[in-house]
Amino acid sequence: MTTALLRAHELGLIGCQVCGLVCREPTRPDAACPRCGSALRRRKPDSVRRTWALLIAAFIVYIPANVLPIMRTVSPGDVDDNTILTGVVELWEKGSQELAIIVFTASIVVPMLKFLVLGTLLVCAQRGTSWAQPQRARLYRLIELIGHWSMLDVFVVALLTALVRFSLLSSVEPLPGVIFFGLTVVLTMFAALSFDPRMTWDDKGRE
Amino acid sequence: MASSQIVLQLLSGRSPVRPSWLICEDCDTVYLRRELAAGEVAVCARCGAVLERHIRFSVDALAALVLTALIVFIMGNMWPVATLSLNGREISATLWDMILIMWRDHSRIIGAITAITLFYFPLLNMMGIGWLLLFARQGRRAPGFRLLMITMHYLGPWTMSEVFVLGALVAMVKAKSYFEVMPNPGIYAYAALMVLITVFASIDLRRLWDVVPDHSP
C-alpha cells in the first residue's frame, strides 16, 4: 500500500503552495507558478530555523504574559489585578464553570500545547525519525485549527475595557500582560504557519 | 490509486501543468483528481489530511451566502454588542468603540490586533470573495483575480470573528457579577456571522482557479 503512495519529488512534480497547481519540476531554481505567479518551492523556506526562532520568541513573551496581570478592575476603595490564571479562577467561582473551562483551554492549554507539539515536531523533523508519523501529522493539523482561539482572553479584556467605564464608580483597564499574551498568540500562529508538515514524512530510512 | 497509472500519465503528457492532479499539502503525496459525489471528502491515504471536499453550493448560492455574511457583518458592527448598567447609568459599546478605546487610551498593539483580526481582514475577506464570485457567476475572472486569490490564501488564518463571539460571551458573564448586563443585537448578528463563517471555512476557494477559466492571453 505504501509503495503506491508516491510523493511529488519522486515523480518530478511540484505543487504550488499558494494555488495548489501541480507542475512539472522546473529547471530553474527561481521558477514561478505559471498560474498564480508565486515562487515554486518544494518546501516552506528555512522552515526549521524560522519555526524555532518564532517559537522561542513566543515562549519568551509567554512568561510575562502569565506572570503580569492582564486586567485591572477599579471600584471605590478597591483595585483588583487579574492575571490569566486568576481570571479563570474568578470566572469559575463567580461566573460559569463551563466558560471557565473554555477560557482555561483557550488561554492556558492551547498555548502550552502549541509549544509542546511544535517543539516535538521540530525535534522529530531534525532527527528524520519515522516515529508516530500519522499522530504527528494529526497534531500539526490540530495546532493549525485551534491556534487562533487563544486570542479569546485578549478580546475579553478589550470588550470589558470598552464596557466598564463608569468613571469613579467602576472601570476596567488592560494591563501589560495582555499585550504580551496577544504577542504570544500572534508569534505561535506564525510559528505554526512557518512549520512545514511535509518534514514529518521525510524519514531517513526510506529515502 | 496505482502508482503505475500515475507514472504512465506522467510519461505520456507533454504539458508542464497538470490540473487534474492533486498534491497533498501536508505530505506531498500525489493523487489523480476524481469528481466527488455529494458529501464526499477526499482524504490523503498517507497523512490523513483533507485533500478536497465536495462543494455542495453552486456559485450563485455561494454569492448569496457572502452577501448575507456581509450584511450580517455590517449589522454586527453598527449595533452595540452589549449594554452594562450600574445605578441607573448605562454604557454600551460596539466593536469599533472597543477598537478605538484600545487604540487611543490603552494599547496600540491590542488596538491593532483587534482591528485587523476582527474588522479589516474579515471585511477584506468577504468583499474579496464576493467580488470574485460576482464575476465567477458569469464564468469570468474578476479584475485582480490573481492578486485577490493570493491575498485570500494568506488572510485565511487571521480572521477571528468567531473567537470574538465567545470572547463577548465570557466578558458578559464576567461583568454579570458586578453589573446588570444586557446583550444587544450586535452580538446576535455576530453569532449568525459565526455560523456563516463556519460554512465558508469548509469551502476551498482555490477551486475557483479551475472552475473559472483564464481568458487572458
Question: What is this structure's SSE topology?
Answer:
The complex is a heterodimer of chains A (207) and B (217).
Chain A: E1 13-15, E2 22-24, H1 47-67, E3 71-75, E4 78-82, H2 84-94, H3 97-127, H4 133-146, H5 152-163, E5 165-166, E6 170-174, H6 176-194
Helix pairs in contact in A: 1-3, 1-6, 2-3, 3-4, 3-6
Chain B: H1 3-12, E1 21-23, E2 30-32, E3 41-43, E4 50-53, H2 59-78, E5 82-86, E6 89-93, H3 95-106, H4 108-136, H5 145-155, H6 161-176, E7 180-183, H7 185-201, H8 207-211
Antiparallel strand pairs in B: 1-2, 3-4, 5-6, 5-7
Which features would summarize this protein structure in a list?
heterodimer; A: 207 residues; alpha+beta; Butyryl-CoA Dehydrogenase, subunit A, domain 3; 2 domains; four-stranded antiparallel sheet; two-stranded antiparallel sheet; 6 strands; 11% strand; elongated; B: 217 residues; three-stranded antiparallel sheet; two-stranded antiparallel ribbon; 7 strands; 12% strand; disordered N terminus
Explained architecture:
The complex is a heterodimer of chains A (207) and B (217). Helices cover 52% and strands 11% of the residues of chain A. Chain A is α+β, with helices and mostly antiparallel strands and 207 residues long. Chain A has two domains: 42 residues, no CATH class; 156 residues, Up-down Bundle (Butyryl-CoA Dehydrogenase, subunit A, domain 3), CATH 1.20.140. In chain A, the strands form two sheets. In chain A, strands 4-3-6-5 form a four-stranded antiparallel sheet. In chain A, helix 1 packs antiparallel against helix 6 and helix 2 runs antiparallel to helix 3. Chain A is elongated. Chain B is α+β, with helices and mostly antiparallel strands and 217 residues long. Chain B folds into two domains: 51 residues, no CATH class; 153 residues, Butyryl-CoA Dehydrogenase, subunit A, domain 3 (Up-down Bundle). In chain B, the strands form three sheets. A three-stranded antiparallel sheet of chain B has the order 6-5-7. Chain B is elongated and about 70 Å long. The two termini of chain B are 35 Å apart. The chains are: A alpha+beta (207), B alpha+beta (217). Chains A and B meet through strand 2, helix 2, helix 3, helix 4 and helix 5 of A and helix 1, strand 1, strand 5, strand 6 and helix 3 of B.
